[in-house]
Amino acid sequence: MGKLNVQRPTDVPHATDYVESMVDMIGELINRDNAYVTEDGVYLNVLNVPDYGLLAHQSLDDMLSGGGDREVFGAGNKKNPADFALWKFSKPGEPAWSSPWGEGRPGWHSECVVMSLDILGEGFDLHCGGMDLKFPHHENERAQAIALGKTFANHWMHNGFVVDTEGEKMSKSLGNVANLLDLLDHYDPRAYRLVLLQTHYRGPVRIGQDNIDASVNALAGLDSFAARTSAVSQGATPDSEVIAKFREFMDNDLDTSSAVALLFETVRRSNAALDANDQSAASLSAAVIEICRAFGLDLKQASEVPSDIADKAAALDAARAAKDFTAADALRAELTAAGWIVETNKAGTTVRR
Ligand SMILES: [Zn+2]
């Protein structure tokens, strides 16, 4: 996660620490007459949840009659086919906890609702998860909260899967790379991040040699852009129109692919402005740096240049200012010999690898 520049979660709860709270919640649901005990467990009566099916975008009637594309499997002793288990009585040898209704274990959907309401409280902002969890898992988490008379997540986000070029779950498509950890060992971890950003989060993310290579190249381009423009972008106010557009895209259900297109368009505009010695180069390049920072793409800026090299670049500028071109050429040759690319423009000299 560190390599991907992803922050660690504050809490990583274990369901086994919450079994008592789950038993309390199930008891409350029975008290409210929204759950009932059968011979194999305790079930939630989904008919008591007025808008059951909200996340699946299907009405209960459709689900019950099989009219939707999600079939609901019935079990003999449930009141309604769509009712789901809150507590399952254990068979001999299975892990079990005690409850007023008999030894057993909580249903999967009950674990999450108890933990999220306990840690985040009612009406928390955002509930995320893979597309495959929308129904029945998230629908059923939500149904329990509603049946308890509680407000659950204000927003839901369901992400698509990472797939290979054939649309299959990512596996052997990248030669020696079989999983994400491998990918991060073999390629610039930022490249994976950029590929994700180029796809809408709800869509499948296709990972192939071509788009990983393209991302590695794009990042090298962004790094050299950051190094080349560090003198003009530092301290400049990011172009307000570009930033406003960026926010507009991000506010539109995280339209990161349009935002990435805006990023590269801004790089092109900034380069053109630099070449034309136009002063808009400063705010445009500052906008590029700002967007990259918001995306969590840490660019390798000139600040990573060792101090002796930076001193030589500064000496080169001083020599040019003093019109001592022999000294300037000698310094340039030294820097080049040490493996640095030296670029000089109106703003001064920048060096990069
Ligand atoms: Zn969950």
Structure in words:
Its cofactor is Zn(2+). Residues 245-306 form the Cysteinyl-tRNA synthetase class Ia DALR domain. Pfam families: DALR_2, tRNA-synt_1e. The chain is α/β, with parallel strands linked by helices. It has 3 domains: 15-159, HUPs (Rossmann fold), CATH 3.40.50.620; 180-302, no CATH class; 305-352, no CATH class. The chain is built from 12 helices and 10 strands. It has helices at residues 19-31, 60-65, 108-120, 134-147, 180-186, 189-197, 209-233, 240-251, 256-275, 280-294, 307-321, 325-337, and strands at 35-37, 41-44, 84-89, 104-106, 126-130, 155-159, 162-163, 205-206, 341-345, 348-352. The strands form 4 sheets. A 4-stranded antiparallel sheet has the order 1-2-3-4. It is elongated, with a radius of gyration of 28 Å. Bound molecules: zinc ion. Residues 112, 137, 141 line the site of zinc ion (ZN).
Mean pLDDT: 88
- Structural class based on helices, strands and sheet pairing: alpha/beta
Major beta sheet, strand line-up: 1-2-3-4
Task: Output the radius of gyration.
Answer: 28 Å
CATH superfamily of the largest domain: HUPs
Through-space gap between termini: 27 Å
SSE string, helices as H and strands as E: HEEHEEHEHEEHHEHHHHHHEE
Low-confidence stretches: 66-74
Q: Name the bound molecules.
A: zinc ion
Please write out the topology.
Elements (H helix, E strand, L loop, with lengths): L18 H13 L3 E3 L3 E4 L15 H6 L18 E6 L14 E3 L1 H13 L5 E5 L3 H14 L7 E5 L2 E2 L16 H7 L2 H9 L7 E2 L2 H25 L6 H12 L4 H20 L4 H15 L12 H15 L3 H13 L3 E5 L2 E5 L1
Parallel strand pairs: 5-6, 7-8
Antiparallel strand pairs: 1-2, 2-3, 3-4, 9-10
This protein binds zinc ion.
